[in-house]
């Protein structure tokens, strides 16, 4: 989507996701015999802590930005990064190449286990930590090399900045740290490469920023653009993560309501003023011999109407009312979806599947991180209650349920679509009859003489309506197009039927997993429909 990319500094929480990859072997024992590996690991962990503490200032973040780590959970660098996040209270998302138990007991090509029993125990303890908000398999490949490559690609995809830890003399391999750095740079991510070495019995660190900006002095700020929010929510103020989605929905709902009302007023005003101006012009053209006293007034009224319509049209586009309405409503519906899934654990993948505006990326990520935090420890035994609550509040509630909503909106859209078509056919039909009557009058066939009208008056009347009625017919279609009525009627019917089916499936679910899958499918459908509406509305003005 090519519009809606501009962002502004946030006045509410906004996540900055810090991807990480690091070497598994951090000490070359052959080069450093007798060096205490535990001491090396402790110094690296402390360096991570210091780096993460300085990162907001280094990147030019505001007080509203907060960090979230993204990594694997391998031995070496990943373990130390996770410990640093735990020490700082930074939430962390963990991506796995395969199921946890299989991953922790896997072996490499030389049949050497990836984890010793002690290291596997440490990994399990870290994954059980309070700061781990997600542990998810992100590869569906059966090949080991491809699995690790998939993890790197997913880390790069979701990260705003990447930190990579490499041993000074470490080699590279597919799916390793070097591969992640390369892919991150290709995708225009800022990378902090930390090179660790042991020389003369001391640990040395070198921090290299990539890409190297020509105007960045050594030690200066890297070329990083801090995440922002769409202009429509730049004034949304909130602190903390509690009730974030609810407050954001309340804010965007009010904005959407206001912009929607203005758009409807503008559409009616633009089309209405031009229709009335056409009536004035037709009256002047047809009855100019009989309207000497009011001719100037009619011309003034016509000019005023045209000027008013032009001003409203200019202001509508200058204020970007349609775009702001579409964006605010989309965010409002997304937050409603997130709130509806408060009883469903895990990653909100449905927010990232539709083609949503790029400017919403960080808002969506923030909603996802807060959801992962809130649902991490949902009790398994309460899933049936959560299902019942979801079905009632999200689908069946007479006021806010989606099935009653789409039923009402489908009926309303059908009525107004019918009215617009009646208006078009009526205007066009009467115009045709009037043209036929004028043709008959031209041949001096006075079949309407019983109306006791003079030929001149009748001819003028037919000429007047011959101009006005086609305009009214087109105005009816223009209003229907501006309000997107035909597409809405089709969409509402389709959505109501789909949600009724989903309701049956949800009520028949027999496990927590089935409920969660069905709920996510339902929300995917709802968010997808809103994304399609956004695409239509964002690019649809008053025609």
Keywords:
543 residues; alpha/beta; seven-stranded mixed beta sheet; 10% strand; elongated
Produce a short descriptive summary.
The protein has 15 helices and seven strands. The protein has a seven-stranded mixed β-sheet, with helices on both faces. It is 57% helix and 10% strand.
List the helices and strands and how they pair.
Elements: E1 14-22, H1 37-59, E2 65-71, H2 77-88, E3 91-96, H3 100-104, H4 117-127, E4 132-137, H5 144-158, E5 161-167, H6 177-186, E6 190-199, E7 202-210, H7 244-287, H8 295-318, H9 321-340, H10 361-375, H11 383-396, H12 402-442, H13 455-482, H14 485-507, H15 512-538
Could you walk me through the main structural features you see in this protein, from its secondary elements to its overall organization?
The structure is a single chain. A seven-stranded mixed β-sheet has the order 4-3-2-1-5-6-7, with helices on both faces. 37% of the residues are buried. It folds into three domains: 14-228, Rossmann fold; 235-323; 378-538. The two termini are 22 Å apart. With 543 residues, it is of the alpha/beta class. The chain has helices at residues 37-59, 77-88, 100-104, 117-127, 144-158, 177-186, 244-287, 295-318, 321-340, 361-375, 383-396, 402-442, 455-482, 485-507, 512-538, and strands spanning 14-22, 65-71, 91-96, 132-137, 161-167, 190-199, 202-210. Helix 1 links the parallel strand 1 and strand 2 (65-71). It is built from 15 helices and seven strands.
């Amino acid at each position: 989507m090519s519009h809606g990319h501009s962002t502004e500094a946030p006045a509410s929480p906004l996540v900055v996701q810090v991807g990480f990859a690091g070497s598994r072997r951090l000490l070359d024992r052959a080069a450093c015999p007798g060096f205490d590996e535990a001491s090396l690991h402790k110094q690296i962990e402390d360096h991570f802590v210091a780096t993460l503490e300085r990162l907001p200032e280094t990147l030019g973040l505001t007080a509203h930005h907060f960090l979230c780590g993204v990594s694997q959970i391998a031995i070496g660098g990943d373990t130390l990064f996770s410990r640093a996040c735990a020490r700082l209270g930074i939430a962390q998302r963990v991506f796995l190449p395969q199921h946890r138990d299989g991953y922790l007991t896997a072996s490499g090509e030389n049949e050497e286990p990836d984890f010793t029993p002690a290291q596997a125990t440490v990994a399990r303890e870290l994954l059980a930590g309070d700061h781990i908000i997600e542990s998810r398999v992100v590869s569906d490949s059966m090949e080991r090399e491809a699995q690790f490559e998939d993890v790197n690609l997913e880390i790069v995809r979701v990260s705003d900045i990447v930190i990579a830890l490499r041993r000074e003399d470490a080699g590279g391999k597919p799916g390793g740290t070097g591969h992640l750095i390369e892919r991150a740079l290709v995708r225009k991510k800022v990378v902090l490469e930390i090179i660790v070495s042991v020389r003369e019995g001391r640990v040395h660190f070198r921090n290299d920023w990539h890409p190297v900006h020509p105007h960045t002095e050594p030690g200066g700020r890297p070329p990083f653009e801090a995440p922002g929010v769409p202009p429509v929510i730049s004034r949304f103020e909130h602190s903390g993560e509690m009730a974030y989605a609810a407050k954001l929905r309340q804010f965007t709902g009010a904005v959407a309501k206001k912009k929607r009302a203005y758009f409807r007023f503008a559409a009616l005003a633009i089309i209405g003023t031009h229709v009335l101006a056409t009536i004035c012009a037709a009256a002047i053209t047809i009855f100019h011999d009989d309207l000497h006293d009011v001719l100037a007034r009619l011309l003034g009224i016509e000019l005023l109407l045209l000027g008013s319509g032009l001003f409203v049209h200019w202001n509508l586009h200058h204020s970007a009312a349609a775009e702001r309405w579409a964006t605010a409503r989309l965010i409002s519906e997304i937050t409603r979806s997130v709130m509806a899934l408060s009883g469903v654990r895990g990653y909100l993948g449905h927010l990232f599947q539709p083609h949503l505006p790029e400017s919403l990326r960080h808002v969506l990520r923030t909603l996802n991180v807060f959801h992962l935090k809130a649902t991490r420890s949902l009790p398994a035994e309460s899933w049936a209650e959560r299902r019942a609550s979801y079905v009632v509040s999200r689908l069946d509630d007479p006021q806010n349920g989606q099935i009653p909503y789409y039923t009402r909106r489908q009926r309303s859209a059908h009525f107004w679509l019918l009215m617009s078509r009646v208006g078009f056919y009526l205007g066009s039909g009467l115009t045709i009859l009037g043209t036929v009557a004028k043709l008959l009058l031209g041949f001096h066939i006075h079949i309407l003489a019983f109306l006791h009208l003079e030929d001149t008056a009748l001819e003028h009347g037919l000429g007047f309506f011959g101009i006005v009625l086609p305009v009214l017919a087109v105005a009816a279609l223009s209003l229907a197009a501006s309000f997107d009525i035909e597409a809405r009627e089709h969409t509402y019917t389709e959505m109501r039927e789909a949600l009724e089916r989903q309701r049956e499936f949800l009520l028949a679910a027999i496990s927590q997993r089935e409920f969660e899958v069905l709920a996510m499918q339902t929300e995917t459908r709802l968010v997808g429909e809103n994304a399609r509406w956004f695409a239509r509305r964002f690019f649809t003005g008053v025609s």
